[in-house]
């Protein structure tokens, strides 16, 4: 398997002004089905599609159900799945995937589709992979490379994360955001959003780790860009596709080191004022 091939499959593992008003009254988000612990939305062709509702904040409120969704690629959604998204009133989708990923796994949105926001770009991971020949890679080296990549996501996807927050501030919800696996780019986006809403750190990390329950590595292995994964050294594939708390902690550490901590980082990097954070909590907490 060539290094270029590993870069391609790593892309899959990486998952990538009018007055402000809340969502129209006629859009009534569907309540969660089943127990609160069942976050996965039951879609026939979904990939790691989950609701962020129900998480408790530090001040005792909780994230509203049926407004904020995170997901992997939606290319496998069926007609019944699209009908379910319509039933849930999803208005906006922030697709973080790059041009190649969207071309390899296009989403056949029906006529009544949400507004889809995406950027044409190429995610270059050549400098993010372990050094040296692939046959010499170890799981430890792969984990170290993945850990080092997460702080870079904060910079590379700053514009797309800011746009997600802008859509939410404008009340363009229910909103879903996704990459390919729904783990890395999406995981960072979810961590930033939950942090902005005041969800405690351990809960933020727990949400990130749920990918290990809801994303089957076999699903990624069947993706168009993933041919040859079986040729990777033992443990390397797992290190690249698993949600490891060290990965998300590396991104969150950037926020912690910023003057003013996470709030200071959200102010500067995401352009969110104190009034914006208050509005986000008004709209998406109860």
Automatic annotation (TrEMBL):
- Keywords linked to the UniProt accession: Hydrolase, Signal
Any one GO MF annotation of this record: protein tyrosine phosphatase activity
Under which main EC class is this enzyme filed? hydrolase
Per its UniProt record, what Pfam families does this chain match? Y_phosphatase3
Signal peptide extent: 1-25
Enzyme Commission no: 3.1.3.48
**Any coiled-coil regions, as ranges:** none
Q: Which PANTHER family match?
A: TYROSINE SPECIFIC PROTEIN PHOSPHATASES DOMAIN-CONTAINING PROTEIN, TYROSINE-PROTEIN PHOSPHATASE
Spell out the family assignment given in the record's similarity comment.
Belongs to the protein-tyrosine phosphatase family.
Stated name of the protein: Tyrosine-protein phosphatase
Q: Which organism is it from?
A: Sphingomonas kyungheensis
